[in-house]
Amino acid sequence: MTVEEVQSDKLSEGVRAVDRALDILLAFRPGDGSLAASELLKRVDLSRPTLYRLLRTLEQRGFLASSGEPRRYQLGPAVGQLAHAWNTDLNLVAIAQPAMHAVWEQTGETVALLLHRGQERVCVAELPSRQPLSFRRGIGHSESVVVGASGRAILAFLTSPESYLDDSVPLERKVAYIEELARIRKAGYAISRDELIKGAVAIAVPVLNSRGQVLGSLAVYGPSARIDEEAVQDHTASLQRATREITQKLG
Hints:
This protein is of the alpha+beta class. The protein has helices at about 5-25, 35-40, 50-60, 75-105, 150-155, 170-185, 230-250; strands at about 35, 65, 70-75, 110-115, 120-125, 140-145, 190-195, 200-210, 215-225.
């Protein structure tokens, strides 16, 4: 067997282990409270040794908690952490909608809310422009947080933005990029022209929580034919009013 085949087998086994662990978590239903291993065995297609091995791992990582004798298992705090993050996103989208609509009415351009997710920012809400010539990315679209105005508006307000830059980037470019982020942080907004889409202008401001932590960015997209320097200033003011409103509502 070649090295590549061995590595492939290890990867496949790892994927199977993840799949089986998820089966265990998804076996819990509303109202279950706690389940014994014997009850879980009836719901998942696993051998007893495999089940116990995965139960130990899930408990060590906080996805399960156990008590009693014989042991009974219930969903752990790590599941609650994921649920809280999911609910927070839903709440933020709902809270942001009125402010987004105000920007949309004021600018006539596409307005998007993007949230920071690891190395990327993800569009979670968008109000497309009604004008024939317009730009939009679509809900669910993700891109590196390093590129684009909406990415840099997030990165400029993180504590260690340099950690997001690829090691292959030359030092001079890294220094210039960090200096640009400092200017964005001071100005309170980021702008890009023809960067990701030819002919498009993007203006973005950070969305902060009540503790001053950046959650994402609110952006306006439109064609350069409509967004001149005067429009940039007007749209930026609209975005900043909106994000202040969102932060206040977040409490």
